[in-house]
Amino acid sequence: AFIVTDNCIRCKYTDCVEVCPVDCFYEGPNFLAINPDECIDCALCEPECPANAIFSEDELPEDQEVFVELNQDLSQIWPNITEKKEALPDAAEWDGVEDKLEHLER
Ligand code: SF4
Ligand code: F3S
To answer: What sequence ranges are listed for the domain 4Fe-4S ferredoxin-type (predicted)?
Structure first.
């Protein structure tokens, strides 16, 4: 599956959701999660993310491994999102800030 990682937190640009053929993105307050059981590994979402926050699980950076379980768990409890919306208002300021996990809202 593809995994949404740290740099999505507090950005949430949502360009990714528009291209997903199986609509497997789920939306929290400041992060999105991919349901790994629904993702068909098409790779369409990866280049769409302006924050480069989406990785194939095979190419996941070592320090992002915690996000495998987070995508799995959060996609179970959050509502589905299929249409792009405005990014969070201070997305540009948070884009590229490292280790935003402490800011993840559930
Ligand atoms: Fe959706 Fe394809 Fe991205 Fe998986 S890889 S989340 S199926 S767009
Ligand atoms: Fe997040 Fe990138 Fe999608 S910032 S909402 S993974 S476009």
So the answer is: 1-29, 30-59
